[in-house]
Amino acid sequence: MSKDLKISKKYSFHELPLVVQNDYLIQIENEIESDKHNNFFCLLKVSYQKLLEEFDNMFGPNLIDEMECDYVINLADDIVAHGLNYPPICSEGTHRSLAHLYLKRDMLRFELISKES
Fold first, then answer.
1. Mean per-residue pLDDT over the chain, rounded
2. 20: exposed, middle or buried (C-beta count within 10 Å: 0-12, 13-18, 19+)?
3. How confident is the model at residue 67 (pLDDT cuts 50, 70, 90)?
4. What values do phi and psi take at 6, rounded to 5?
5. Looking at residue 32, what is its pLDDT?
């Protein structure tokens, strides 16, 4: 992950790493009202506990199965060996989040914030 990224810093869309911009564009491609030029993002450290709550709400009793699938375990091994290549943005990055849950680690994630923040 780029060492230039700072936790709690506000980023415009064009200041995001290119791969993160692309992930965001894929998420919003069907949203007519989304204007990437007016959006700002903040890099946040999401605690293991918050991730657990989010994904427990999403998957319920299937959470363990989701965390223990081969793809997530391989991704977790890669994160241990090489670190997180880039943080996910908004709701993108489900597998990276599950890998961090599997590892019982906090995770960095870009969140959409209001322009006035």
1. 88
2. buried
3. very high
4. -125, 135
5. 46
Distance (Å, whole) CA 11 – CA 75? 27
Least Cα distance to 54 among 113, 117, 114, 111 occurs for 111
- The CA distance from 41 to 89, in Å, is 9
Tokens of 14: 């064009």
Token pair listed for 57: 């709400």
Return d(Cα 96, Cα 54) in angstroms, integer: 13
Q: Per-residue pLDDT for 44 more than 50?
A: yes
Are 52 and 101 within 8 A, CB to CB? yes
Cα–Cα distance list, 40 to 29, 65, 83, 101, 112 (Å): 17, 35, 25, 27, 6
Per-residue pLDDT band at 37 (split at 50, 70, 90): low
